[in-house]
Amino acid sequence: MSIHYRIEDVFQRLMEHYGPQGWWPIVLTEDGKSTRRSAGGYHAGDYTYPHNDIQRLEICLGAILTQNTNWNNVVTALKNLKSSGSFSFAKLVTIEENDLARQIKSAGYYNQKAGYIKNFIRYLKQNPFSHEKHQETSILRKNLLQIRGLGPETVDCILLYAFNRYSFVVDAYTQRILGKLRIIENNTKYEFVKERFESSLPKDLFIYQEYHALLVEHGKRYYSRKPYGEGDPLF
DNA sequence: AACCAGGACGTGA
DNA sequence: TCACGTCATGGT
């Protein structure tokens, strides 16, 4: 590429090209009144509003279930949970791990992920959503990272989309895209890439939330196993 | 019919 | 620290 982009420029270009993505996608809630957003697509003003707890829970479960997994398989798993009456905090506290595993089968790695979800629910029982506001983001992040099964990307998704914290999410696509643009070196460590974004961007939840979503959308089109885009808008 | 998706963990060097 | 094996369904 001839142009040398800055991190801010890439966001601008992607947003112009794809438009807002409306992340995190909520698939189990339909009302859209008292809640942060209605199910499905993007709605202006969806950002920075607090979620209700059931939507927060859905985001957290989705973040765990989508680890190295196609999102469609995650949606199937989430719908299974709901239709079998397991989609509530109280139910997830008491459900047997192997029962949970059976219900999230479609998301793959279902035995591991069932354990990961139970670990997270156990944490949530000690640290309810209602208490989260009193915690500083860096502390909260460290605490979440202690949970076995929640690595940096999953934790940052939870922080950014469920807790509306300024915590940029780095994923494989982010590394590939920014590497190709020569903005970062290949094999740059997660925390360093994250820091690059956070020190370059204004503190704006819309930007944080949309930027990651746009990188995933762009990554799927041009940096996946089977790219389906024509004419990379960043080149 | 392989190949892999919005990762994370355990192990051995 | 780091490279590598493991976990697994569903779509292409």
Summarize the helices and strands and which ones pair or pack:
Blueprint: H1 7-18, H2 53-65, H3 71-83, H4 89-94, H5 97-103, H6 110-126, H7 137-146, H8 152-162, H9 172-180, H10 190-200, H11 205-222
Helix pairs in contact: 1-11, 2-3, 2-8, 5-6, 7-8, 9-11
The structure holds a DNA duplex (13 and 12 nucleotides).
What does this structure look like?
This protein has eleven helices and no strands. With 235 residues, it is mostly helical. The radius of gyration is 18 Å and the shape is globular. The chain binds a DNA duplex (13 and 12 nucleotides) through residues 63-64, 66-74, 76-77, 105-113, 116, 148-154, 157, 169, 171-174, 212-213, 215-216, 219-220, 224-226.
What is the N-to-C order of secondary-structure elements (H for helix, E for strand)? HHHHHHHHHHH
Average predicted confidence as pLDDT: 92
Biggest sheet overview: none
Q: What does the overall shape look like?
A: globular
Count of DSSP strands: 0
Specify the structural class.
Answer: mainly alpha
Helix content: 40-55%
Strand content: under 5%
Rg, please? 18 Å
Contiguous low-pLDDT stretches (5 residues minimum) are 32-39
Number of helical segments?
11
Distance between the termini: 6 Å
